[in-house]
Amino acid sequence: MSGSRNDSDMKSRNILFFISSLRIGGAELHLLNLCGYLAGRGVSSSVCTLAEGGDLRTRFEELGVTVHDLRIGSLTDLVQPSVRKRIGEIVAASDPDIIHAHMYHAEIAAALASARSGVPLVVTRHSSGLEFNGFRKFAASVAGKWMRRVIAVSEEAAEEAAKIGASPDAVVTIPNGVDTSRFRPLDPALRESERARLIDEQFTAGCAAECVLIGSVSGLKPVKNFPMLVTAFSHLEGPRLLVLGEGPSRGELEGLISELGLEGKVSLPGHSARPEEYLPLLDLFVLPSRSEGVPMALLEAMSCGLACAASRVGGIPDLLGDCGITFDSGDTEGLVDLLGQLAADPALRADLGRRARIRAMEYFDLEIWGTRTMAVYEDVVDSHGRR
């Protein structure tokens, strides 16, 4: 780390991020937002990804972020001299003031980079309960001695971090942020025309343009629990369901849709790089996850002014506050009743959506989130200099 930088000037900082991959996911989009925020404030960012490639790589590079590939298949590769040498080269090329890690595997690699270089380490914990068991718990506790700060996106994640390696004084809770200018309600006339086009494209003929459109945006993977949503939806008459995303659970969902006779009523259009074009067209956003931190998609739906219903897990209750409705993640019958209630009550949906938009702007706007994150960086650099 260069000793010539002015520690009082955040604009002179370099941040080296470690992340497990650049595939599309909540943590990866979180990091993309952070790099974009920092770039707008003159802060240089570079990213070391453990896996080569990834759908988001180009979007990082468009922000001016240098992407380094570590190209390791597992954490055991970290013992190889060539991999350790490569980490040293990446740190030297980036000349960072801070190393900031996201996700478990990257956290371990970043701890090694910090230990070898002396650059202070910051870690973001995006969820709780999913990753830190068995050997992972042991490895994370060992890596914890190099963590100057742990940013937790929810109180649950903060509590877990304090139990596993991190000093309680080093843990700070900063919920995810959302770009409220990008994710926003549409002009009513534009929404009406775009919504009609979407319904015509995604559903069978005969679907009324004014039908209730229920939707979600997420990776199609088991933890998101979309079979529960599809099963609950099958008990409704009239609404349509659109789930935007891609992942290993697609085959299971397609089979369930066929089994329940929902072809033409449920659409799985795949991943979109521009979810802000879909979300404002929905009437109701539903996220039935078994486990979560602070889901980006839910924040984006709130920012678009949607009525939101989500499972009562992780940071979701604190995120929604009284501006949305939560349900038990395994209660399919309860979800059937909830969907029926919301589908039949446009006034309630409108009120929830209006309050969700206000909450997103007041508490989760990117400027609020970014300012708090940069304050963590400054505190870490200042304390590192004092040491």
Number of strands: 13
Helix run count: 14
The CATH topology assignment of the largest domain is: Rossmann fold
What structural class is derived from the secondary structure elements?
alpha/beta
Which secondary structure elements does this structure contain, and how are they paired or packed?
Layout: E1 14-19, H1 26-39, E2 44-49, H2 57-62, E3 66-69, H3 81-94, E4 98-102, H4 104-117, E5 121-125, H5 135-143, E6 147-152, H6 155-163, E7 171-173, H7 188-202, E8 213-217, H8 226-233, E9 240-244, H9 250-259, E10 266-270, E11 284-287, H10 296-303, E12 307-311, H11 316-320, E13 325-327, H12 332-343, H13 346-363, H14 366-386
Parallel strand pairs: 1-2, 1-4, 2-3, 4-5, 5-6, 6-7, 8-9, 8-11, 9-10, 11-12, 12-13
